[in-house]
Write a structure and sequence with these properties.
mainly alpha; 13 helices; 0% strand
């Protein structure tokens, strides 16, 4: 159909062009002074046909005929070119097929959107359940840690009271005996003091011996006293090595005001709210726990963390020999780096005391 229409437009346009060209030719004859409007002539091709039909015509008559033909053919050309064609069945089928595909695609898209919304809702519920479970586990771990710390503190206080009571009793008895002996000796010396200078010299020696005994007794008393923790749960976070004033302010801003709250805090939350990473937060918490054991100072706590001991429970479960070997190698490195002097390397007795204190 489009091909036929194009051929018809081409033919009609050619006839329009021919009629217009003939009109132009007659105008030339019309303005020619030697011919004029009454000049009779026969146009090429059309002249013989028209002459045979209607006879000879003047230039003016041919002009009107060609102008009329030009407008007729021009109108015909426009009618053919702009006439609305019936729809092509193939195109109609194509549009119907495209519409069906679009409807199917719309249904598929709606089903996909519904499935995606369901998946998002399921993921949201799963994430919420997971976070609730994590919060529950953290709360249980917090309660368990606080219970262990309270139990340890009560045990330490009981042992300290028992030791102090025993030491005070023993020291009181020993001091009483020594004072009695001293008074008796002084009385004896007063009785014999007038005898000779030799007696006075003996008295001075005995007094010196008594003073020496008193000093030894005080040293024994110091050794018998139970060591106190270097760090307590109510101390400020800045008491921990690695926490400066600025980090301390950040911890307080998130509600951590003492060592006990730092130990039970979520390291992921510390990583999110402060300048330190999660690994650093875990190390600070481990150092704080270990420093709450009597006899463990900053360097001791760092060596234990380097030995992969990060909590009271892990320390309590350690084998003395295996832990002693690890601490020995780590302490050797500390001495070589100048972090501790040679005489501050932990002894096997001190390591044994740490494990015993962690178990109590």
């Amino acid at each position: 159909m489009p091909v036929k229409r194009g051929v018809a437009v081409w033919i009609s346009g050619f006839l329009t062009f021919t009629a217009a060209l003939s009109s132009f030719g007659t105008v030339l004859y019309l303005i020619d002074e030697t011919k004029g409007p009454n000049f009779i002539f026969r146009p090429y091709l059309l002249g013989d046909i028209l002459g045979a039909l209607i006879g000879d015509l003047t230039v003016e008559n041919y002009l009107w005929i060609f102008l009329t033909a030009t407008f007729i053919f021009l109108g015909l050309t426009c009618f053919i070119a702009y006439r609305k064609l019936p729809p092509d069945p193939d195109i109609v089928k194509m549009f119907v097929k495209v519409g069906g595909n679009l409807a199917a695609f719309k249904k598929t898209q709606e089903a996909t959107a519904t499935e995606l919304a369901e998946n998002i809702e399921n993921n949201r519920k799963t994430s919420r359940n997971l976070f609730e479970k994590v919060d529950t586990n953290l709360e249980e771990a917090k309660k368990e840690t606080l219970a262990v710390m309270e139990k340890q503190e009560k045990t330490i206080q009981k042992v300290r009271r028992d030791m102090v009571s025993t030491v005070e009793t023993k020291v009181g008895e020993t001091r009483g005996e020594m004072l009695g002996a001293l008074k008796k000796q002084e009385a004896t010396m007063r009785e014999v003091g007038h005898i000779s200078k030799q007696g006075a010299s003996t008295l001075m020696e005995q007094r010196a011996q008594l003073e020496d005994m008193r000093i030894r007794l005080e040293k024994i008393e110091e050794k018998m006293m139970l060591p106190q923790p270097r760090l307590k749960s109510q101390d400020n976070p800045e008491e921990i090595k690695g926490i400066g004033p600025r980090l301390g302010e950040e911890l307080r801003a998130m509600g951590i005001t003492n060592v006990g709250e730092l130990i039970v805090a979520d390291p992921d939350l510390i990583d999110e709210k402060t300048r330190v990473s999660r690994d650093m937060a875990v190390r600070l918490q481990a150092t704080a726990q270990l420093r709450m054991i009597p006899g463990v100072d900053e360097n001791d706590a760092e060596m234990l963390v380097d030995a992969e001991v990060t909590s009271l429970r892990e320390l309590a479960d350690q084998d003395l020999v295996q832990l002693g070997r690890k601490i020995k190698e780590i302490a050797k490195t500390y001495v070589e780096e100048g972090r501790i002097p040679e005489d501050e390397k932990p002894t096997i007795e001190e390591i044994s005391s740490w494990i015993r204190m962690a178990k109590s």
